[in-house]
User: Fold this.
Amino acid sequence: MNLASPAKRRSLLYAYYGICGFCMGAADLVPGVSGSTVALLYGLYERFLGELKKLADAFRSLLAGRWKGIPEKLKKLDWGFLLTLLGGAAVAIGALARVMNWLLENRPFDLAGTFFGLVCAGVLVAALSLGRWKALHAVLCAVTAVASGWLFGLSAGPVADPPLIAYFLVGALAVCAMILPGVSGSFVMLMLGMYGAVIRALDVLDWGTLAVLGSGIVLGAAVFSPLLATLLKRRHAPLMAVMIGLMLGTLRILWPWPGGVGIISADSSRATDGTGFAWPGLSEAVWPTIWGLLAFILATAAGTLGRRLSQSTRNATLETAKTL
Assistant:
């Protein structure tokens, strides 16, 4: 099969979706980084949100007992795209939970610097997508950045033995954050003192707890994703300005201040929120800066290549359809 063929490009595109999903899952494990920022960077955010909205519509029909319309709604989903993306994210979360926990404890500065560069790349892509900026957009962006920067400075101490209902509620809140670029579901968990408990449940595969957490995630996504998709369609530019502000606010906790993105011991007896302002020494800032620059360059390049591949495959598919 030749590289220029539509089928080959489609295979490469699905591999790209899987890699993007993996990166989204890895990002969602880190307090201060949203997997949706990765989706935005790689040009998949609006499509991902649209698929979530379709899935949420089917879920609401199920809850309301309108079963007849569910098969038709499910047929509208792009299952290949959605399952590849979410499958990549699930693999990352399952495989990297322990690794991320170790990095958060032992390399918080380097991890914070790396994701600082990633979020900066997301800010650049989002800002360019707006094209012409208006005064309203600039004000919305600035106000959101300041407000979210202050909000991200708040955090609670770790909860040692949370009840099951806490997992359900934190799942519903965290997924709303995950769907928004610039807002980290993991950081919401950290702010509420639940991050260590959730990472432990993932690490030891506590299926009962994970099922409760997953139920909260499903409900939160079903309620929030249609609202966000509607706003993005009707008020695209103002909403994008707010998202850029959220990502800029995230940078307030991602620069490697002492504590980085937050240190949490394995038994949750020790936690540093990573939100205190103190300028790091030169020796502390060198490697995080290098990792941040590398992440920015690689993420920008990968995003550009992915968007070109996606557009090329879409054009080739349309041309093939016309000849049939």
